[in-house]
Amino acid sequence: MNSVINGPVYADIPKPAFQPGPAGTHITIRGLTKYFAGWPLYENFDLDIPKGKIVSIFGPNGCGKSTLINMISGLVPIDKGEILFDGKSLKDTKIGYVFQNYREALFPWMRTIDNIAYPLKLEGKSKNEVDRRMEELVASFDVKFDLNRYPYELSGGQQQTASIMRALAPKPEVLFLDEPFSALDFEMTLFIREKLQEVFIQTGTTMMLVSHDLEEAVYLADQVLLLTKRPTSIAEILHYNDPRPRTVATLSEANFVATKKRSLEVFQREVRR
Amino acid sequence: MTRETSSAETTAPAPWQSNDTAAYAPTQQRFDWGKALPLVGPMVLLLVWDLVVRFGLIKPILLPAPIDTLLTLINGMAGPVLLPHFWVTLERTLYAFAIATAVGMPLGIALGSNERAYRSVEFVIDFFRSTPASALIPLFLLIFGINNINKVAIAAFGAFLIVIFNCAYGVINARKQRVAAAKVMGASRWQIFKDVLFWESLQPTFVGLRSAVSMALVIVVVAEMFIGSENGLGHKIIDAQQVMNVRVMYAAIMAAGILGYALNVLFLALEKRVVHWSGR
């Protein structure tokens, strides 16, 4: 009944076959498209994020670094495309997210320890399981401040430490970090950066880090993902393989300096374009 | 709305300060004049009042001396002249407030968490919120008759609109990032509502509750002034005025002022306890 005789012919453009990423890929992004106010921010964007590595995202202002991880983590809806975690959808994947603004990410009506345990309570874990996991986390973070306090009673660095602990509590497969250091003073930045490195060495959790500090981006990364201006595409992916733990000495090593220099060159090329 | 928001700003507790400054203060005990500053206003007011009466600038039949008024107030509050009326007014205000909160809070939170639902009733709420509730007293008199229920009902109605408005806006304007944080941790809609939105809305809700209790008192006092009332501070004020008993009239006005002020202080203290994170 619903076929029109001699109607115009409509044909759908066949969807491109799904191209899996290389071996060891964790997150596969295919044909990602996102429009902002009618302008393309991402158009047919493909990316493979390796498993068990730290990927730093760096690029010009407004190119959508944060938007990229927000789309992957499901905080910003996408217009088109596919994002898979080891072949699974986001729904079946445990993720952690650390916000830049820890003040508005923690819940001030809960004690800090309850904030950290909150994702476990969402999972319906028993009191025993929660307590055991909290013990583990407190030990591995070597927490020196009082977790019975409310978040607003802690310093910025302590609050961000708690945010990271909360994100890691359910043992996520991927940890997203959106400029986690930019609201902290230098001392706290160094401290939390080291903590993050320690956690990564311990757990090997895949991490995606948005950063506006190139040195920090390279220091923590296995891969530096450099983006272009919008519509955003990949300018270059730099690999940085110095062994961990990296230290202050790493900052002056030839490999580090070269990677940083190369990143800066690409960045400047993209900004001028 | 302007009134609510401005009071929200002014009531936010001062930022945390170190106690260390005490260590640098001079050791000798000096009287701290800074603490006496809030007393300056009332003292000046009483002084001007006294002088105005003393020099006969206003006839004593219109304005009694402050000391006489204060004595009438104290004696009245200690005896049958004012105290029963004070309790009746307080009782009506609290009844009205309790009804307004019990109905307005759940409804406001529910409306706020469904913005489409709120938008569809926004005009009605805003319209009645903008209508002076006192203008509706005669209507309520018609419906409920001249009795206690009428006064409580009209006050509850006025307070209810304030509660529902503030609760709904509190939920609507919850910090997006906290909601995002819960969402990214895998919280369901219901979990986001009970663990984040509800708590986020508490601070504006309390601002609403404080305005609502003031509104309830205002309407109760006005309603008590209508013909047929037998008690309450509003009745006492109009009664004293009719027989030109100005001392009692002023004393009753002051008692109403004390009641309003005390309720406000009480709710501020309550807010500070419950919404302990407010302003931090």
Task: Walk me through this protein's architecture.
The complex is a heterodimer of chains A (273) and B (280). Chain A is α/β, with parallel strands linked by helices and 273 residues long. Chain A has helices at 65-72, 112-122, 127-141, 156-168, 186-203, 214-220, 254-272; strands at residues 25-36, 39-50, 54-58, 80-85, 95-98, 174-178, 206-210, 223-227, 234-239. Chain A has two domains: 25-93 and 173-272, Rossmann fold, CATH 3.40.50.300; 106-172, no CATH class. Chain A has a six-stranded mixed beta sheet with strand order 5-6-7-3-8-9, sandwiched between helices. Chain A has a three-stranded antiparallel beta sheet with strand order 2-1-4, with no helix packed on it. Chain B contains twelve helices and no strands. The radius of gyration of chain B is 23 Å and the shape is globular. Helix content of chain B is 76%, strand content 0%. The A-B interface holds A 73-75, 94-97, 99, 101, 104-109, 118-119, 122-123, 150, 152, 166, 170, 176 and B 175, 177-178, 180-181, 183-187, 191, 195-196, 199, 202, 276-277, 280.
